[in-house]
Amino acid sequence: KMIRPVSIALVYGGNQSHEYARIMAKLIEQKSSQLPLIPLLVDGSSENGKIIEIIKERFAPSDHAFVFISAVYEGKESNEDRIMKMTVPNLMFEFGYLYNKLGEKKIKLILDFPFSEIKNNHFCFPSDVSGNMVCDKPELKSSTEMQITNILSRVLDDELKQIKSQNGLSDISDIRSLYIPRIESLFSREKSEGLNDYSLEKQLQVVY
User: Fold this and answer.
1) Distances 152 to 132, 136, 161, 190 between C-alpha atoms, Å
2) What is the Cα–Cα distance from 120 to 127, expressed in whole angstroms?
3) CA gap 98, 113 in Å, rounded
4) Along the 208 residues of the chain, how does pLDDT read in single tens digits?
5) Calpha distance 103→99 (Å, rounded)
6) How far apart are the first and last CA of the chain?
7) Structural contact between residues 143 and 151, judged by C-beta atoms closer than 8 angstroms
8) C-alpha–C-alpha distance, residues 204 and 208, integer Å
C-alpha cells in the first residue's frame, strides 16, 4: 500500500492569527518525523482580485485544515449600539471552500475568543457553525510564544487522533516494525542489514 502524506492547510487572516498558524506549522513539521504530514501555510489574502481561482489553487492539495480566527476589525451595526467584531473577509471565502471540499469533520476552527461571541452574533461569522468544529482558546491572546506553543501542541495532539483514523495513518516506527520482518524473510540477515538505506523508514525520511 502506497503511503501518501496528509497535507494540513493552515489558514489565517491578520497578524495575530498568522502567529498561531506559524507556530502550528512548526509543530506539524516536528510531528512529520513520526507521521507523513505536510503543513500548508496559507494566508487570508489574494492578489489581483482573483480570489476564487487563488483559493482553488492554494487548497487543492489539502486533506485537513486548521482555520485560525482572530478579530481584525470592529464596527457598529446600523441602528444598533453593539460592537460587531470580524476577521479578514477573504477568510470567509476560504472557510467556505474548505467546508465544501473537506466537510466539517476535517476542519478545526481555532478561536482566540469565546465561541459564545459567534453564537450570540457579536462576531461576524456563521452563527450556526457546528460546535464540533470549534476549539476556542481565549487565553491565546494574552499568552507568550512558549505558552501558545503548549496550547496549540495539545490541540494538535487531540486532532491527530482523528487525522490518523480518517486517513489510515500509522506511526512510521509502527510501519517499520511490520516492514522489516518481510525483508528478513526474503534475504539472509547479513543481506537484509545491508538494505537499511532502502528501508521504508529511511525512504519516508528522504521524501518527507
Assistant:
1) 17, 11, 15, 45
2) 7
3) 22
4) 446 788 999 999 888 999 999 999 999 999 988 888 899 987 655 555 577 777 788 888 899 999 999 999 888 766 667 788 999 888 888 899 899 999 999 999 999 999 999 998 889 998 889 999 999 999 999 999 999 999 999 999 999 988 888 777 666 554 444 444 444 444 444 544 554 554 555 554 544 4
5) 5
6) 17
7) yes
8) 6
d(CA 202, CA 72): 44
CA dihedral sign, ordered 69, 73, 78, 83: positive
Say what the pTM is.
0.77
Retrieve residue 55's grid coordinates. 483559493
One DSSP character per residue, the chain reads -PPPPEEEEEEE-SHHHHHHHHHHHHHHHHHTTTS-EEEEEEES--STT-HHHHHHHHHTT-SEEEEEE---EEEEPTT--SEEEE--HHHHHHHHHHHHHH-GGGEEEEESS-THHHHTTSBSS-TT--GGGEEE-GGGGG--HHHHHHHHHHHHHHHHHHHHHHHT---HHHHHHHHHHHHHHHS-HHHHHTTGGGSHHHHHHHH-
